[in-house]
Design a protein that fits this description.
This protein has 320 residues and is α+β, with helices and mostly antiparallel strands. The chain has 6 helices and 19 strands. The termini are far apart. Strand 10 and strand 11 form a beta hairpin. Helix content is 16%, strand content 36%. A 4-stranded antiparallel beta sheet has the order 4-5-6-7, with no helix packed on it. The protein has a 4-stranded antiparallel beta sheet with strand order 8-9-10-11. It has a 4-stranded antiparallel beta sheet with strand order 12-13-14-15. Helix 1 runs antiparallel to helix 2.
Length: 320
């Protein structure tokens, strides 16, 4: 056994008080989960002074890996491909860092969506929906997609969908997640091809289809328990775009939060998240050569600050 280091050569960092270690740890966690994990790995004192994310990865939103996305390998190397040997790479939207994670679940699961960095998986054998934290391995079980079939039969009784078609349409979803007291996970899924929404919790045995229709839209954006979507319509003689908001813990119809003339942002209009801000991205004229970026908060308050990106802009790194 190696002799103990003399006092003069011991690192003073290991003797930091628990309060200071926790303060530094929470500030790191506000930026990136992996930095928090690295801090906990420094020494026994720092590890014991901080909360382990394992076991809390899904039910505690502080540990959601929001700035990470699963990386598409291309060349036919889908998750679960034998050449990947059960590994998947993830990409950090802020730092550009890659990490490689072993996820053997992909041998019999497929990815339907990603929300707050959590993967929304469907198990092949029974269509069970599962929320997976890719870094901690924590998982929350949700009702299977097939439990939606009975509810959808009432909603779509006048539409000729086969059961196979319904299942295919149900897989194209946009999910938002919130966590209630006691760690109960609440999920809202927009069925994008059906213009419907369904909700379920980790305590439920089936999904509930909400009684209202979702406005036609481009790809929704999910952020911190809410979903946002852009709907184009005509008010009087004016073509306008409307931004709606829905919350995972509410069953209320979509709430209109902003309306702006389409001449301000020409089609297509997208919603992205950058530095915790929701941005509305489109073009400032029909030539589609310049991107215009508005903060959603400015459109809601009817302020006009806008960022114009000229021809050949640098990539806008954001979650959409």
């Amino acid at each position: 056994m190696s002799p103990s280091l003399p006092p003069a050569t011991r690192s003073p960092w290991a003797s930091l008080t628990e309060d200071i270690v926790r303060l530094v740890a929470w500030r790191l966690l506000a930026g990136d989960l992996t930095d928090y994990v690295r801090l906990r790995a420094v020494c026994t004192n720092w590890r014991s002074s901080t909360v382990s994310p394992r076991g809390r990865g899904v039910i505690d939103p502080r540990f959601h890996p929001r700035r990470w996305m699963m990386f598409a390998e291309g060349h036919g190397l889908h998750p679960g491909h034998e050449d990947l040997r059960e590994h998947v790479r993830f990409f950090n939207l802020d730092s550009g860092t890659f990490v490689r994670v072993r996820l053997p679940l992909f041998t019999d699961h497929c990815v339907l969506d990603s929300v707050e960095g959590l993967l929304v998986l469907q198990r092949d054998e029974d269509t069970a929906i599962r929320l997976l934290h890719p870094f901690t391995g924590d998982m929350v079980e949700l009702p299977p997609l097939t439990s939606l079939a009975v509810s959808l039969a009432m909603q779509l009784k006048n539409e000729a969908y086969t059961e196979a078609t319904k299942l295919k349409l149900m897989r194209r979803i946009s999910v938002s997640v919130s966590v209630a007291a006691g760690g109960v996970v609440r999920v809202m899924a927009i069925l994008m091809d059906m213009m419907l929404a369904a909700v379920a919790t980790s305590k439920d045995t089936e999904w509930t289809v909400l009684p209202w229709r979702v406005p036609s839209h481009y790809q929704p954006l999910s952020s911190r328990g809410r979903q946002y979507l852009v709907h184009n319509t005509v008010i009087g003689d004016t073509d306008v775009s409307q931004v709606f908001q829905m919350e995972a813990h509410l069953h209320d119809p979509p709430k209109l939060i902003a309306t702006f003339p389409r001449e301000k942002l020409c089609d297509p209009v997208y919603l992205v998240e950058c530095d915790s801000e929701v941005l509305v991205v489109g073009h400032n004229d029909m030539s589609l050569t310049h991107l215009a970026v508005h903060r959603l908060a400015d459109l809601i308050s009817e302020r006009t600050p806008v960022l114009i990106l000229k021809e050949h802009p640098q990539p806008l790194i954001a979650k959409c």
